[in-house]
């Protein structure tokens, strides 16, 4: 049995050295990045079995993704496409400080994942897992990806697998109105919802205090757990009628990309270990803080490092 199975797109990430511009650089650093694979890698590095499902082109670029994920202990039973019309999605990230800021350019049209079908994937892995995770990025990619996302969530739900969904709204993929319709179509099959406060207000059209937001979502959609991420304000969670407030752990930021995925990975690892929601939030915040100190999308962390951030009062993840 696999502890966690995830489903979604992973792209190649290309970036110039810090302080350089894409239009003038002679060098590009190659890494991989994708919300669902980032979560799978974090959970694996924290001591639990994880698998990532997707569809990739059967090419050296596609294999580059699986090789890197496997190096972090993630199983990769993906579907392979030999269609020359499909390709490997990429994105370019140009880091910059104030006042310029960081710029991200996506090049993901016609990626293999846009043609994915649930029938191509080993759905028995989901049925036999403890948890299944995906995010709102995936159904925004294409009609086929949206249908596959819905089918896999329903498969997990029917099997009694705990389902986890992160809104992960991306304005470059769809409008708030389109996203709201897409999200709500999936909510019946979701047990644990993770949502940024900004997206909850601007995309789902909710208002009120943070406490109002989590309680309203839980009541309206019968979620088992709702986690509201609030940036520098930390996170707020509602579970079994109890509200939990978790501040951030301070960190020097080397690369903020993937911080939210690290947060989810830390939380799920703690829950897979049998910890309560309060402890799960501590490990989520600690894993996210560590990720900010690491270049690339993936939280290359150890359980001992997370334990150290949480401190001696933390319960500790047993492995």
Question: Topology of this structure?
Answer:
Blueprint (H helix, E strand, L loop, with lengths): L3 E4 L3 E5 L13 E5 L1 H11 L4 E4 L1 E3 L2 H12 L2 E2 L3 E3 L8 E5 L8 E5 L15 H5 L3 E5 L7 H17 L2 E5 L9 H9 L7 E5 H6 L7 H12 L3 E5 L5 E5 L2 E5 L12 H14 L4 H15 L11 H8 L9
Parallel strand pairs: 1-4, 1-10, 2-8, 4-6, 5-7, 10-11, 11-12, 12-13
Antiparallel strand pairs: 2-3, 8-9, 13-14, 14-15
Protein name: 2-keto-3-deoxygluconate kinase
Keywords: Kinase, Transferase
InterPro entries: Carb_kinase_PfkB-like, KDG_KDGal_kin_Halo, PfkB_dom, Ribo/fructo_kinase, Ribokinase-like
What does this structure look like?
By secondary structure, this protein is an alpha/beta fold. Helix content is 34%, strand content 21%. The protein has a single domain (34-76, 119-310), classed as Ribokinase (UDP-N-acetylmuramoyl-L-alanine:D-glutamate ligase, 3-Layer(aba) Sandwich). It is built from ten helices and 15 strands. Strand 11 (162-166), helix 5 and strand 12 (192-196) form a beta-alpha-beta unit.
Quick recap of the structure?
The protein has 319 residues and is an alpha/beta fold.
Give keywords:
319 residues; alpha/beta; UDP-N-acetylmuramoyl-L-alanine:D-glutamate ligase; 9-stranded mixed β-sheet; 4-stranded mixed β-sheet; 15 strands; 34% helix; 21% strand; globular
